[in-house]
Amino acid sequence: MELTGPELWGLVHGMVFGALFLLAFAGGLAELHLLRPTTETPSGLRVSARRIGLGVTSMAVLAWGTVITGTWIVYPDYREQVPTSPRSILLADPATEAWHTFGMEWKEHVAWLSPMLATVVAFIVLYYGVALARNDRLRRTAMTLFILAFAIAAVAGAFGALITKAAPIQ
Amino acid sequence: MNGRPQIEPDAAASAPDVIGVERSEGPAVAALLAVGIGAFVLGLLTTLAEASTTIRDWLQLTDAVGPLSGKTTFAVIAWLIAWGGLHLALRERARLTTGVLVTTGVLLAAGLLGTFPVFFELFASE
Fold this sequence. Notes:
The complex is a heterodimer of chains A (170) and B (126).
Chain A: H1 5-34, H2 42-78, H3 86-92, H4 97-110, H5 113-128, H6 136-166
Helix pairs in contact in A: 1-2, 1-6, 2-5, 3-4, 4-6, 5-6
Chain B: H1 9-14, H2 26-51, H3 53-59, H4 67-90, H5 98-114, H6 117-120
């Protein structure tokens, strides 16, 4: 039992960077939701703001790690112009070609919006810190971007898992 | 109930150093508009690459990754340049108005549309 280089990078891309980003989302969203003067003591707000800043910054780094490894390391093996590449295998069968023409084509592009959005959320939390607690509109805007970053990552992650199941990288 | 103690807003707001330093909303506005621009550029390049083989070839920075290399690289560059420029221009004065939120939303929606295969394949050149 051993992993090839492309399989290992596929795991790092999907199961380390991507999965950690998705798993961390619920905690980050709950923390952002609760960053209000009515839910925390003054000292609690300061601690929460620091914790959220660390959390969303880590998530932004994970999101960048996901798309960079996916595009620049895993994708070349996926799209290699040989009959045994996952792309060639999927396109060779009308029953599976939509995994590439729709699933992969959507995933490979839209996924790049997730780290951009996560970075903006991280910037807002780090720059405004505890002051975000009294700026409800900005806090809600950050939450909306955060949810959008997650939704996009979830779409990309789901298609990644399903495409890998249909035609794994080897 | 969320299980946490409910704090009176007035008490929290009046405590020293609770709410942090007052900061202009300008940097947030710049970040929001810039991410909208980055998304729009990604959607635009994705659609243009489908419509024109010349643009597709131009976006192919490496053979291994193909046109995706250029689409994503130039979208990220556009995002960062827009962010930097807007930050310098708006950092002291902009407010997070409904107009800013709508503009950001429209740009993000356009970016999402441009990266959706059913849409960009409408412009396929072959």
